[in-house]
Design brief:
2 domains, eight-stranded mixed beta sheet, 14 helices, 21 strands, binds cytidine-5'-triphosphate
C-alpha cells in the first residue's frame, strides 16, 4: 500500500467513528488518506479528529471558495487511487445509484474516474428495503465494489445485516485490492482448489482434569482454528476438525471430532490420517496432572494446600511430523509473547513442520479470545508479515496460500 492513496468519504452514520480507526490502519500501512466529511458526518465525528488522524485538510463544503482555489472538487475526486465510502449510508448509495450530485461527497463520487469501494452501514430494515437493494444492484452493475455489511447487533438495538465491516476488514480489502492490481478485494482459494485433498485442523484449548470437577486449561477461544477449517472446507478439502472444549458452531461441511485432553486430541488426529494438509492451531496443554483423581479433593480443616504433580503431554505437532503417515504439508502455530519471529523460527526446526504461523498473544494485543489477528508466516524460505485482519480473513488467506503451495506454486 506504500505510495497509494485513498479518498475517504465519511457519511453520516453511527459507524462514522469506526472510520477514524480505518484512517489509522491505512496510514500505518503507508497509504495516504484524504477525507471528505459529509454534513451529516460532522454530527458523528469532528473535522478536527479526521484531520489529525489523516494529517490532511478535511473537505466538506462544495461551495467553499478556499477549497476550490486550493483544489477543485473535480481534481479532489481524482487525486487518489481509490475512493472509499465508509460508512456508506442509504442516502449516499441512493445518490450515486441515481446520479445525484448536490453536495461535495456526491459530486466527487460522480466526478471521479477512479474505482469506488463502499462499506455500507444502516439499520437492517433500511438495508433490506427494496429501494436500497435496487440501488445496490445498480451500483454493482456500474462497477462499484462492496465490503460488508456484516450481520450483527445494531446501535439501534435490532439484529441483522447492516453493520459496517470492521476497519481491519476494510483495510485488508483495500490492501488486497492494491496488491492484486485492482483485480480483487478478497484473497481466497479458487473454488475447488483443494478438491480431492484431505485436511486436518486442531483448534481450541485442551482441559486436563485434576479431579471430577477441576481442570487445567488456557484462554484459547478456538476461533482461529474454526475459521481455518471453514476456509479449507470451502476450498474443497475434505476437512476434519479436532476441537477442544469451545462454544462455537461447527463450520458447514466439516467433520468435527470433539475431545477434552491432549492425549484424546492426539488419538483423534492419528485417526484422521492420512492427510494432505494439517494445521495445528490448538493451544495444547504442555502438562497434565500426573493423576486425575476419581473423587473431588476436599478442603480439610488445618490441612496443607494440595500440590499437583505434573506429567508432560505428548506433542501432537512433533508426533505428526515424525509419523509414518506424515501430513504432506504440516503447519504449526506459535503463540508467543516476545521475540515472536525468533521463537517461531526455532519452533519450525524443533517441531519438524513445514510452516509456522506465528502470532503475538501478549494481553495488550487482545488476540486471545478476540476476533482479529496479526500473523507472520514463517517458512524455511523466509517470513511473510500479514497485516492485522479478522480471524476469518486469516483463515481464507491461509487456505489460499495452502492451495498455492500444494498446487506447486509456492514453497
Ligand atoms: N502443540 C502440540 N502439542 C503440544 C503443544 C503444542 O501439537 N503438546 C502445537 C500447537 O498446536 C502449535 C505448536 O505446537 O501448533 C506450538 O505451540 P506452542 O504452545 O506455541 O509451543 P510449545 O511447543 O508449547 O512451546 P512453548 O510453550 O515453550 O512456547
Amino acid at each position: 500500500m506504500r505510495g497509494k492513496s485513498v479518498l475517504l468519504i465519511i457519511g453520516g452514520g453511527i459507524a462514522a467513528y469506526k472510520s477514524l480507526e480505518l484512517i489509522r490502519q491505512l496510514k500505518t500501512r503507508g497509504c495516504g488518506v484524504r477525507a471528505i466529511l459529509t454534513q451529516a458526518g460532522t454530527e458523528f465525528v469532528t473535522p478536527l479528529s479526521v484531520a489529525s488522524l489523516s494529517g490532511e485538510k478535511v473537505f466538506s463544503d462544495l461551495f467553499s471558495l478556499t477549497d476550490e482555489a486550493e483544489m477543485g472538487h473535480i481534481q479532489l475526486s481524482r487525486s487518489a487511487d481509490l475512493v472509499v465510502v465508509a460508512p456508506a449510508t442509504a442516502d449516499l448509495m441512493a445518490k450515486l445509484a441515481n446520479g445525484l450530485a448536490n453536495d461535495l461527497a456526491s459530486t466527487a463520487l460522480l466526478a471521479t474516474d477512479k474505482p469506488v469501494l463502499m462499506a455500507p452501514a444502516m439499520n437492517v430494515r433500511m438495508w433490506n428495503h427494496a429501494a436500497t437493494q435496487r440501488n445496490l444492484a445498480t451500483l454493482k452493475k456500474d462497477g462499484v465494489l462492496f465490503v460488508g455489511p456484516n450481520d450483527g447487533e445494531m446501535a439501534c438495538g435490532e439484529y441483522g445485516p447492516g453493520r459496517m465491516a470492521e476497519p481491519a476488514e476494510i483495510a485488508a480489502a483495500i490492501e488486497t485490492y492494491f496488491a492484486s492490481g485492482g483485480r480483487t478485494l478478497e484473497v481466497r482459494a479458487p473454488d475447488g482448489a483443494l478438491n480431492g485433498l484431505r485436511a486436518l485442523v486442531t483448534a481450541g484449548p485442551t482441559q486436563e482434569p485434576i479431579d471430577p470437577v477441576r481442570f487445567i486449561a488456557n484462554r484459547s477461544s478456538g476461533k482461529q482454528g474454526y475459521a481455518i477449517a471453514d476456509a479449507l472446507a470451502r476450498a474443497g478439502a475434505e476437512t476434519t476438525l479436532v476441537s477442544g472444549p469451545v462454544e462455537i458452531a461447527p463450520p458447514a461441511g466439516v467433520r468435527l471430532l470433539k475431545v477434552t485432553t491432549a492425549r484424546e486430541m492426539l488419538a483423534a488426529c492419528e485417526s484422521a490420517l492420512p492427510a494432505d494438509i494439517a494445521v495445528m492451531t490448538a493451544a495444547v496443554a504442555d502438562w497434565r496432572p500426573e493423576v486425575a483423581l476419581n473423587s473431588k479433593i476436599k478442603k480439610e480443616a488445618g490441612a496443607a494446600a494440595p500440590s499437583i504433580r505434573m506429567a508432560e503431554n505428548p506433542d501432537i505437532l512433533a508426533t505428526l511430523a515424525r509419523h509414518a503417515t506424515r501430513p504432506g504439508l504440516l503447519i504449526g502455530f506459535a503463540a508467543e509473547t516476545d521475540d515472536v519471529i525468533a521463537h517461531a523460527q526455532a519452533k519450525l526446526k524443533k517441531k519438524g513442520c513445514d510452516w509456522i504461523v506465528a502470532n503475538d498473544v501478549s494481553p495488550a494485543t487482545g488476540i486471545m479470545g478476540g476476533d482479529k489477528n496479526t500473523v507472520h508466516i514463517v517458512t524455511a524460505g523466509g517470513v511473510e508479515d500479514w497485516p492485522e485482519m479478522p480471524k476469518s480473513e486469516v483463515g481464507t488467506r491461509l487456505a489460499a496460500r495452502i492451495a498455492d503451495a500444494v498446487r506447486g506454486k509456492a514453497a
